[in-house]
Amino acid sequence: MISYPSIDKLLSKVDSRYSLAILAAKRAHQIETGSFEMLDDYKSSKTVGMALEEISAGKITIDPHSDLKEAEAEAIDQKAQEDEAIQADRDAKQKKQASDDSQANE
């Protein structure tokens, strides 16, 4: 459970908890991939916390005219599933290669 920023303050910036979760997740991903930070000082060291602080400060908003809701959530979910499948495939290949290398050295 988050204590800062408060959920009440965050919900005053967006129209629903769902929108807040999507917005925070997107912004956290941007921060993780090297996007610039919008505040000079953060209380949180984690990207989701940083994103919530930016939302609370009014630095990140949702365009009320965009269809961010369900289509965006589905796209994010689909991308996450694809990324997980790619990573699982890479892990399986690395494990097989390590096993093959181990057997070749015996």
TrEMBL record:
The keyword Glycoprotein does not apply. Keywords: DNA-directed RNA polymerase, Nucleotidyltransferase, Transcription, Transferase. The RNAP catalytic core consists of 2 alpha, 1 beta, 1 beta' and 1 omega subunit. When a sigma factor is associated with the core the holoenzyme is formed, which can initiate transcription. Promotes RNA polymerase assembly. Latches the N- and C-terminal regions of the beta' subunit thereby facilitating its interaction with the beta and alpha subunits. The gene is rpoZ. It is an enzyme of class 2 (transferase). The keyword Ribosomal protein does not apply. It comes from Lapidilactobacillus concavus DSM 17758. This is DNA-directed RNA polymerase subunit omega.
